[in-house]
Each structure stands twice: as C-alpha cells, then as structure tokens.
Design brief:
Elements (H helix, E strand, L loop, with lengths): L2 H17 L4 H10 L4 H9 L18 H13 L9 H12 L2 H13 L4 E5 L15 E5 L2 E12 L6 E7 L13 E7 H4 L4 E5 L8 E12 L3 E2 L5 H37 L1 E2 L2 E2 L4 H29 L5 H26 L10 H9 L8 H12 L7
Parallel strand pairs: 1-4
Antiparallel strand pairs: 2-3, 3-7, 4-5, 5-8, 6-7, 9-10
Helix pairs in contact: 1-4, 4-8, 5-6, 5-8, 8-9, 8-10, 9-10, 10-11, 10-12
Bound molecules: flavin-adenine dinucleotide (FAD).
Length: 386
Amino acid sequence: MSDLAYLHGDLRRGVRQLCTDFPDEYWRRMDKEEAYPTKFVTAMTQAGYLAALIPEEYGGVGTGVTEASIILEEVHRSGGNAAACHAQMYIMGTLLRHGSPEQKAFYLPRIASGELRLQAFGVTEPDAGTDTTSIRTTATREGDTYVVRGQKIWTSRALYSDLMLLLARTTPKDQVKKKTEGLSVFLIDLKSAVGKGVTIEPIETMLNHQTTQVFFDDLRIPVDSLIGEEGNGFRYILDGMNAERILMAAECIGDGYWFTERATNYANEREVFGRPIGQNQGIQFPIAQAYIHIRAADLMRNEAARLFDAGEDCGAEANMAKLLAADASWEAANTTIQTYGGFGFAREYDVERKFRETRLYQVAPVSTNMVLSYIAQHILGLPRSF
Ligand SMILES: Cc1cc2nc3c(=O)[nH]c(=O)nc-3n(C[C@H](O)[C@H](O)[C@H](O)COP(=O)(O)OP(=O)(O)OC[C@H]3O[C@@H](n4cnc5c(N)ncnc54)[C@H](O)[C@@H]3O)c2cc1C
C-alpha cells in the first residue's frame, strides 16, 4: 500500500468513526424537523475536517482537494449529508487565492477554528440562475463604503453563517466590453448586516437544505469587504468551481455507495416467493449496473482531484466527474427505491430521504445541461449555443 493510500485509509476511518455518532435516526430527525445539524457541523469543525483546504499557516490542515473530497464522500457514504457545511471548503478558496494578506490573516484562522462560519454563497438570483452574468444585485461605491441593492435566491445556510461571499455587479452590463466583466466579489459580515439592510427568508424545499432568499436594501459595507480587484469577480468565482464540482462529485459517489450497499443488503434479506429477491437477475442487475457506474465516476473524481492538486487544468475532468457521479447516484437511488418496493417510501428506511437529497445534484450547484454544454463547446469545439 502506498503512503498516500495508507493516509487516505486513516482519513476515511477517522471520518467514518465521527459519523457513527450521527446515525440514520439523527439525519431522519433533522430532516423531519427541517433542522440545521449543528451538532454534526460542530463535530466536523472540531475534528478539523472543514479546515482541510485551509493552509497550515492559517490554522488549517492544508490538504488537497483529493483529501477534502474523501471527507465529504465518507459523510455521504455513512448516510449523512454534508450540505450543512460543505460550502466552507470551496467558498474559502476565493478568499485564499484572491484575498488581501490582511483579509486572509484575519478571516482564515477564524474560519479554520470555527469561530466564524463561512457557509453562505450568494450568486443565484430569481432572474439569473444559469445565466450568472445577468445578475441584477449591484454594489455601488459611495465614499469608503459600497451600497448593496438587490436580491439573491437559493442562498443556502445564510441563517447559519457568519459570513457571506457575495457576487454583485459593480459596473452595469451595458457598460462593459465582455458580460463577464464588471462583477465583483465581497465578503460580508452577515450577522451584523441582518436588520441593517439585509433580510433573510427561508425557502421550503423537498429536502432539508436551509436555503433562503436574501434581500439587500441599501446595505452599506466597508470598501475592504471587496475581494481582489473590482470587476474581476466572475473570474474569481470560476476559479473555485472546479473544486466545487469535484467535491460535489464525491458526495454523489458517497451517496451511490450508500444506496448500493443498502440495496444489496435488502435484496439479500427480503424473501418473496420463498427466496431472496436478490436471487432474481431483474433485481441484481440494476444494482450491479449502478455500482459499476459509481466506480467509474469515482475514477474520474480521482483523476480530476489529482489534476487539481497538481495545479493542472482540470475543467473537463471536474465537469465530467460531476456529471458521471450525479447520474450514477441518481441511478443508484432509483434502483434502491425499486429494490425496497413499498418500503422504499417509508421514512424509517432512509431511502426516500437520500433519494430526495441526491436528486439535487442534477440541478445544483451546476445543472447537467451546463456540464454538457461546457464539454460540447470547450472540449469538443462545437459552436457556442448561448
Ligand atoms: C437546494 C438548492 C440550493 C442551492 N444553493 C445555492 C447557493 O447556496 N448559492 C447559490 O448561489 N445558488 C444556489 N442554488 C441555485 C442553483 O445553483 C441554481 O438553481 C442553478 O444554477 C440553476 O439555476 P435556476 O434554478 O435559475 O435555473 P434556470 O437558469 O432557470 O434554468 C432552468 C433549467 O433550464 C436549463 N437551461 C437553462 N439554459 C439552458 C441552455 N442554454 N441550454 C440548456 N439548458 C438550459 C437549466 O440547466 C435548468 O435545468 C441552489 C439551488 C437549490 C435548488
């Protein structure tokens, strides 16, 4: 076994051990009560897992995306859901790569220790989801402040985060050469902004995700909230997206392994017509097929993470890993609910909960169509379609 495989084995065992404190009943209760899994997030923070990607000089662990992806995969493989805290891993990359030395020195150690939670990422708007450059939220410079006006939607965890990374227009779209110009990224002290220009409203959804709408009504933020240079925010956000895609692929892979394991166990135990249902190839083959697809997606995830950690271009691999893994976990979810028959719909088996949770990855954080469009245009050289 290589040193890396040994370390990864240790890492996997550590996360698995932590997750034993958060069994199916815990996640079922969180889901039923639509509650934020504070105890789980605290345990992940205290174990240092959420600071995996923060360099050691800032109090983090300083691992690569490969290790971060293993952490998230294991949470999902245990039946849990890392959505309550995963964003901390990839959002802080924008601050790390583009923040000023002062911003990094102030925020990163506090994020690593858990004193400050950076869990909210405000990009999507009611009229600009896929079409990010059409966002209408503006940040206008007035003296030593920016004034923020507009609305974000689907800002997950905003009620449970101290900080928010916000994408806003600083130059109107019709005044820039390229539509990707004139967008800027800000790090907002969300807790102190609530009631002083920020209102947060929860959105009820089919899964327990603590997602919200955030309204900005003349919120004044200091100029040093700006990350990097004004107008370059779109590029900064894009930089973090490959990491995000790899990490989300890992969650899907964890879900996929969870589903196939549950389906296999159930198919071995459940007897119909006097024999285990798993003896029927009509039940076996879909489980085997889903497992094969998960393993294949896993390989692509590893390759994308390896390239990312080596500092090489991984846009194609990160996108392909995300699509393959999201498709594989959804296939595994469908297969598992079919294997369980009626019991797949009963809350106490957790299959319907994971089924709802893993469906999200077809849409967010990037929809399948957008991945296909990226590969078609940027890798295959087909004409741009929008
Ligand atoms: C639970 C949840 C949590 C989320 N959390 C966050 C968050 O924390 N922060 C954040 O900023 N956003 C978040 N999002 C938003 C998510 O990233 C968007 O929903 C997603 O980007 C799609 O945008 P939209 O919903 O506006 O879809 P639309 O842009 O309206 O698109 C609708 C459908 O049409 C397809 N489509 C659009 N244009 C084309 C085209 N040219 N070719 C082919 N297909 C096309 C899309 O792929 C999609 O399937 C979250 C969403 C959900 C549901």
